[in-house]
Design brief:
The chain is an alpha/beta fold. It folds into two domains: 2-145 and 298-360, FAD/NAD(P)-binding domain (3-Layer(bba) Sandwich); 155-211 and 249-294, 3-Layer(bba) Sandwich (FAD/NAD(P)-binding domain). 25% of the residues lie in helices and 19% in strands. It has helices at 15-26, 85-100, 186-195, 217-237, 244-248, 254-261, 340-360, and strands at 2-4, 8-11, 35-38, 110-115, 121-125, 130-132, 136-139, 161-164, 178-182, 201-206, 212-213, 250-251, 267-269, 273-275, 278-280, 286-288, 291-294, 318-319, 322-323, 329-331. The strands form six sheets. It has a five-stranded parallel β-sheet, with helices on one face. Strands 1-6-5-4 form a four-stranded mixed β-sheet, with no helix packed on it. A four-stranded parallel β-sheet has the order 3-2-7-20, with helices on one face. Strand 15 (278-280) and strand 16 form a beta hairpin. It is globular and about 65 Å long.
């Protein structure tokens, strides 16, 4: 039996979990004894290790370096764009883990996080022999395991293929088919590009028109700040998080510009319902379909946290990375911390507040103020 009593458990070794781990080490905490980091993936790379083989780093949003990543001998600023992005990110994150000597335990699938009698947590896994009893849990679980599906009439009666973004593997799987791509983000646009000339027909559906903007650094910065504010406002209010693309739009990258010139960016308003063999359009027309790719974004993968009252669909009150209503639980990478750029700042704050909470036992942690525990 593997039974860990390390005071801190970090769940997830993607960008958020690794950033928190780095800052915990910077504070003198020792991996394996002061904190343990577990990950459900078979290897390093977080969600990136599961992305489709044709995706390259140049096709995706910019990936920022993790804190002090250069010390591990790698940087995404000069990462190769020829190999699959999944391979590059897995390699770089693996080197980073080894540099920090994290000894990430994997594959470990956490199935339940419940409150323990002593005020800490009882954490169980798919392997019943592996349990954890931390005082603090840092949930850096990401979103890849929780893709969104729409509530649309007829979805269960459609007889064609239906997949979500994590299930996509290659365009050839849709050769000769009539395919609907639903969604306005980077993944949806990537699918449109790959399916062109492979599927017999590709129709792009979105709820609202997608706003494209030129690659202006100042505009991108302003839009990014606005998106962070909206994400933070929703998190603090305990509301479901808005999608990133709905607040920032899409940058007109060279690949997207080529798609526009090729006439691939003609969107159709979201259909009203599905039938067994197609979609009923808003104007009353009918679109015959063989397959639908749902690329509607993701919710935080908080299923294991239901015992402590968390639900991404209902919304979670999160302020400065703390689950407001669950003392001792931190949500790294949630809401305004979701980007690779936000991972460093969020990880630093989480590590600081973890140390404060372990010292004072007061929730929410207030650095610099020693108080008597009164949870």
């Amino acid at each position: 039996m593997t039974h860990s009593t390390a005071p801190v458990l970090v769940i997830g070794a993607g960008q958020a979990g690794l950033s928190v781990a780095h800052h915990l080490v910077q504070r003198g905490m020792v991996p394996g004894s002061d904190f343990v980091i577990v990950d459900r993936g078979p290897g390093p790379g977080g969600a990136w290790q599961h992305r489709w083989d044709s995706l390259r780093l140049g096709d995706a949003h910019r990936i920022a370096d993790l804190p002090d990543m250069a010390a591990a001998g790698v940087s995404f600023a000069d990462a190769p764009t020829d190999p699959p992005a999944s391979a590059v990110v897995s390699d770089y994150y693996g080197r980073y883990e080894r540099h920090l000597d994290l000894h990430v335990r994997r594959p470990v699938a956490v199935t339940s996080v419940a409150r323990a009698a002593d005020g800490g947590f009882d954490v169980t896994t798919a392997d019943a022999a592996a349990t954890f009893r931390p005082r603090v849990v840092v949930a850096a679980v990401g979103t890849w395991g929780s893709p969104r599906l729409p509530e649309i009439p007829g979805r269960d009666s459609f007889r064609g293929a239906q997949i979500t973004t994590p299930e996509y593997r290659r365009a050839e799987d849709f050769a000769g088919m009539r395919v609907a791509v639903v969604g306005g983000g980077a993944s949806a646009l990537g699918f449109l590009r790959e399916l062109d000339g492979v599927a017999s027909r590709v129709t792009w559906f979105t709820r609202r028109p997608v706003v494209f903007h030129e690659r202006d650094e100042m505009l991108r910065t302003e839009l990014g700040r606005a998106s962070v504010r909206l994400q933070d406002d929703a998190a603090r209010a305990g509301k479901p998080l808005p999608s990133i693309v709905s607040t920032t739009g899409m940058p007109m990258t060279p690949p997207i510009a080529r798609m526009r010139r090729a006439g691939l960016l003609t969107r159709v308003p979201m259909f009203t319902r599905l039938t067994a063999d197609g979609a009923v359009l808003q104007d009353g027309g009918f679109e015959p379909l063989d397959a639908i790719i749902w690329a509607l974004g993701f919710d935080a993968d908080l299923g294991p946290f239901a015992p402590v009252g968390l639900s991404a669909r209902d919304g979670v009150r999160v302020a400065d990375g703390h689950a407001v209503d669950v003392p001792g639980l931190f949500l790294a990478g949630y809401g305004p911390q979701a980007s690779t750029i936000g991972a460093d700042r969020g990880g630093r704050r989480t590590a600081r507040d973890v140390a404060t909470y372990l010292r004072d036992g007061v929730w929410p942690p207030t650095p610099g103020a020693r108080r008597t525990a009164a949870n």
